[in-house]
Amino acid sequence: MHTKQLDQHVGQVVTLKGWVANKRESKTVVFINLRDGHGLCQCILGIDDLGDELFAEAKSLGQESSIAVTGTVVVDERQIGGYELHATDLKIYQNAKDYPISNKEHGVEFLVDNRHLWLRSRRQWAIMKVRNSVIYAIHNFFQSEDFVQMDAPIFTGNAAEGTTDLFETDYYGKPAYLTQSGQLYGEAMAMAMGKIYTFGPTFRAEKSKTRRHLSEFWMIEPEMAFCDIFENMDTIENFLRAVVLEVIDKCSEELEILGRDISKLETVAKPFPRMSYDEAVEILKGNKEVNGQNSLIVIQADLDAAIARQSECEGEIAEREATIAAGGIKKGVINFNQNKIDGLKAEVKQLEEDQRNLPQWLASARDFTYGQDFGGSDETVLTRLFDNPIMVYDWPHEIKAFYMKRNPEDPRFARGVDVLAPEGYGEIVGGGERETSEEWLVEKIQEHKLPMDVFQWYLDLRKYGSVPHSGFGLGLERLVAWVCKLDHVRETIPFPRYYGRLEP
Ligand code: 4AD
Ligand code: MG
Question: Contact at 8 Å (CB) between 14 and 86?
């Protein structure tokens, strides 16, 4: 029995087990918001129903005390969840005291230090439910499209994505690396099964603290035999559309808790714009317009708007402060004005940050050197012109991994594809068509200074029934961050691992 099943038990006596999310009390009644992991339910505990002794114990319960409440289910539309429990009995598992996370504001570092407890908060609950639905929808898509889930090893002898961010471990006296990607094994498995996907943890020693990087993250990597880059892009698009639409459908309550504007996600239903790297660079640098819009002018307009909005906010803050200072108004009116002032001050802080960032983004887009990879701010400037994910393909081969297929018509380019999410979330998918020529692969392995011996098995795939094949990798946490519109990927995984963070 849990809080999401109350609708089937109206008028009946049930027992709910959970934790005290918060509590109010009067002389004769205690109101407990019970949290049971499924949802919330207000429990009303009256002195007449519980008796003096139990009532006194109910009154003494601290936040996060563990309890079971027995009572009658009553419909009350005004309550969270829509029901109330009129209690007749209470069992206390533990009366918890001094729970460190209160309903007041806490700094993010404090909350991450207390991640083992922070997970119980309502927003974190909503994010974890969305993560769960994203995972479910991913399996749903691939299973219904006849992909077979297969697992790649975590200990590997070789680098898949360059050697700079490898975690080295000791494997019975020999060096081994935690996997950066299951792809190379995925290619072998696709030659056995046709269409496969891996879904596992991947590791990158990223010594930078950005809002998009984790040291340990989960990646979904489909691999398809007899598939070129364009069919690959079709699959990516169908996949992301199916997953996001299913999650919107299943998680309306969670997304509402997170304050997510769902219309921004529904745009996945439209075709994803596709462009070559060359085109993307032209758009980024403001040399090519999209629907009559120029990237640099759009960012400049954002900057102007931020400056204008800040002075508007500051004006309103001054007015409301004057109202409070003048006195002679009711407590409720003071509080109302103070709340507005707090909200406006938070907005000003954000606007000030925008005014620091936007000029740097503008400069970096203007000065972008052809041939480089896009940085986070370049991705933001580029995607600002679109309201749904975009796909950038055909990258200079020098900046892509050794296994990427060269475009046969123009070998300066490798047939990689990155998907960039809107609203500043940037790259969520990286993939491409794989090189089939053993000769070119050997050349690339040498060029990247990778040890040839550990790639012998991989080269075998080009000797025995080599076929055109493609695949991609989706970063689970980056997708969840975008779906939930979070400031940082660390909130998308139960126990985040990133540079400087190993606990709890
Ligand atoms: O673009 P990446 O490096 O591609 C690969 O690893 C390919 N082998 C995938 C394939 O074709 N099978 O990584 C793929 C995705 C990125 O687009 C990003 O979403 C995520 O993995 N990712 C990270 N997410 C969080 N923290 C990090 N440090 C990440 N690095 C990559
Ligand atoms: Mg990438």
Answer: no
